[in-house]
Amino acid sequence: MKLRDLGESGLIRRIRDRFKDAPVTLGIGDDAAILDIPPGHSVVYCSDLVAENTHFIRGLHPADSVGYKAVAVNVSDVGAMGGIPMHFLISLAAPGDLDVEWIDGFLNGVERACRQFGVSLVGGDSSSAEIIFVDVSMVGRVRQGGAMLRSGARPGDAIYVTGNLGSSALGLERLKAGDMKHPAVSRHLYPEPRHHAGYAVADRAHAAIDISDGLSTDLNHIVEESKVSARIYRNLLPAAPDAADWQVLHGGEEYELLIVARELPAVVEGVPITRIGEILESSANHQVFLVDGSGESVLRPRGWQHFSNSGQS
Amino acid sequence: MKLRDLGESGLIRRIRDRFKDAPVTLGIGDDAAILDIPPGHSVVYCSDLVAENTHFIRGLHPADSVGYKAVAVNVSDVGAMGGIPMHFLISLAAPGDLDVEWIDGFLNGVERACRQFGVSLVGGDSSSAEIIFVDVSMVGRVRQGGAMLRSGARPGDAIYVTGNLGSSALGLERLKAGDMKHPAVSRHLYPEPRHHAGYAVADRAHAAIDISDGLSTDLNHIVEESKVSARIYRNLLPAAPDAADWQVLHGGEEYELLIVARELPAVVEGVPITRIGEILESSANHQVFLVDGSGESVLRPRGWQHFSNSGQS
């Protein structure tokens, strides 16, 4: 069956039937959802879009990965603020000749993410379009005044990263090569956001960001927003098995957290935390320095940049 | 200049420079925005997407209308719940060869909407894609327990509509014909959501919806959700000047409010309110009846349906 046979009202009914038990005042089916934030908390609010042929290839990426990942990346953003993810909306555009099977697979992935992260779908929008386009926006909560910003890093702080680096870019490479059994492939298709770790360290961290555009790009965001510089050490970087150098330094879609703090334990919420460098004072040029062996060079942002057709080399 | 010359970081800088003064705890530039909802209020949360060639045609619809409307339709949704719109995110996908002039026009429209509705842009996402996609999600507030739902209509209630009907569909027709001076064209390009009226009647209304898919479709949503039927009168419908019958009954993108209440005044917040019919008891089939002259017929939803290629006749 094609999406055009199901029609918009059929699609909405299908989604509503699956996600009707959201723990909110009012979920799917009205002009808007109504939800409540516990007293003493602020709203954490973000969105992340997924466009066909840019973020995924139909026929290469399974539909359930597209659904899962669209939710997971927002969970990661909320976690990077030290927040707890709660509810989300999906805006979905797709061609009328899309197989309903794809939609069902997509919804399977969304459902998996809901169970795994304790979040709920409370509404959204749908439309026809020439290609598939998914935008998820998410609302979470954070203790008032307790959010981890990009701008709080101070000279003398240590720089930490959760998990390991390079597996998502490696996974995409292995996926394209048809090597589905490589463990990095599932890290690329079903990333595990580190929101539990983020929440756990929020009161001790000075700054944080999730690594969605690559370590080089995202650490540069921290130094720019905090008006500092940073030094990291190649031999301290927790590289994923088989990951190439550029994948470790510049690979995007990692969804590990980069956390700046005085000191963090080696494991938080079951996730290994590795110290990779330190924050330095800087006056004019806020830069990241990479120490590799006996040499030191400036690490420029070389992660993913949309529109420019440059990006990952 | 093309979008690919500006690059993603250039685009984000351009947006951030324009919208940096949002009255929130944390606006554009981090992994998520942080905002606060006044005590005693719930969060109203919705999204609405705009796809090129589905919702607008580049070269026909001005870029600033696309930006303005993407925000306005969400303001309308919040207003249909009786809420006050506050903050929004924009997820924007566009081709690298798009003129930056289009982006600037789009942002002009967003800025106009911010000023007009007292809302603020606090973040979002951007990506390359083969065609333009815009998804806006919005957060507003409503007094706890005070939202107008689709499901509250009761037999004996009266049905009201704000403003007039048919002007958006008529405006699109005139726009396609190149008749830019027809007043309905600006109603199509720059709709005026009725959120002030919605907020003002929220404590007296039993149900409400905004007319985004056409009167026939949206009134059918009310009767289905409320498990009632409805009767409306052709001669009571406030038709826009020059609007054809199908435009009045089925034309979408009106962004007028359909409000069900015991009684409403003739003018609310400067907006005329017209009584067009009444809610009836029904047991099994929840239907809308249209009285036209001496005849009465069932008014089926014939407004816009995505995917199906049917929709407005």
Tell me about this structure.
Two copies of one chain form a homodimer. With 313 residues, chain A is of the alpha+beta class. Chain A is built from eight helices and 13 strands. In chain A, helix 1 (3-18) runs parallel beside helix 3, helix 2 runs parallel beside helix 6 and helix 4 packs across helix 5 (183-189). The longest helix of chain A is centred in the N-terminal third of the chain and has 18 residues, at 63-80. At the A-B interface, helix 1, strand 1, strand 2, helix 2 and strand 3 of A face helix 1, strand 1, strand 2, helix 2 and strand 3 of B. Strand 2 of chain A pairs antiparallel with strand 1 of chain B.
Task: Explain the layout of strands and helices.
Two copies of one chain form a homodimer.
Chain A (H helix, E strand, L loop, with lengths): L2 H16 L14 E3 L5 E11 L11 H18 L3 E11 L5 H18 L2 E9 L4 E11 L14 E5 L4 H10 L6 H7 L5 H7 L3 E6 L4 H12 L2 E5 L11 H6 L6 E5 L5 E2 L2 E10 L7 E5 L2 E4 L15
Parallel strand pairs in A: 3-4, 8-12
Antiparallel strand pairs in A: 2-5, 3-5, 6-9, 6-11, 7-9, 8-11, 10-11, 12-13
Helix pairs in contact in A: 1-3, 2-3, 2-6, 4-5
